[in-house]
Design goal:
Blueprint: E1 9-11, E2 27-29, H1 39-47, E3 50-52, E4 67-69, E5 72-77, E6 92-93, E7 96-97, H2 98-107, E8 114-120, E9 137-142, H3 147-158, E10 162-167
Parallel strand pairs: 5-8, 5-10, 8-9
Antiparallel strand pairs: 1-2, 3-4, 6-7
């Protein structure tokens, strides 16, 4: 059977809530008479940055209510306690700091819902509140020792599904 955009499809394997679908790896033609979304309808959702709303089992068809628009966030790591060049994220490149240039670029990305500058709770990082560049940039302060935990907590607290990880000292 040739696949067309009208072909109703099912999942080849179980998928968890929040996962993206791969049209090539995750889908198979459904048995005749199976209700569900067509390949074309799923393709349109994937291209529009939709992810699974809840867990789905292998062999199950997909419906519109199984998808949600992913919240995409740029999380910019910014620390102030560099030993070789302290405060390097706040050094100016032209009229803006390195961190501000990074935020400016992140704000221009299409389909970006949130831009977050993630720093730690150490006293040295308090100065960053004056360098968020734009009112839409969120300053998130978290775990001073675990960068990945800080990113995870920021994403969880702010409802971000997909993270674009950037660094403020590398605009």
């Amino acid at each position: 059977m040739a696949w067309t955009d009208e072909t109703i499809v099912v999942l080849k394997k179980a998928k968890k809530a929040g996962q993206c679908l791969s049209l090539e790896r995750d889908l198979a033609p459904a048995p005749a008479g199976t209700p569900g979304l067509s390949l074309g309808a799923i393709k349109a959702r994937v291209q529009a940055w939709h992810i699974l709303r809840h867990d789905k089992g292998a062999g199950t068809a997909l419906f519109a209510e199984d998808f949600k628009k992913a919240v995409i966030g740029a999380i910019i790591a910014c620390r102030m306690k560099s030993s070789r060049l302290p405060g390097k994220a706040l050094l100016k490149i032209g009229h803006l700091t390195s961190a501000e240039l990074c935020m400016k670029s992140a704000l221009k990305i299409q389909n970006m819902h949130k831009v977050v500058m993630a720093s730690s709770t150490v006293d040295q990082a308090a100065v960053l509140k004056d360098y968020t560049y734009h009112p839409d940039v969120i300053l998130y302060r978290g775990n001073p020792d675990e960068l990945i935990d800080r990113h995870y907590q920021a994403a969880t607290d702010l409802g971000i599904d997909v993270i674009l990880r950037l660094t403020a000292d590398c605009p």
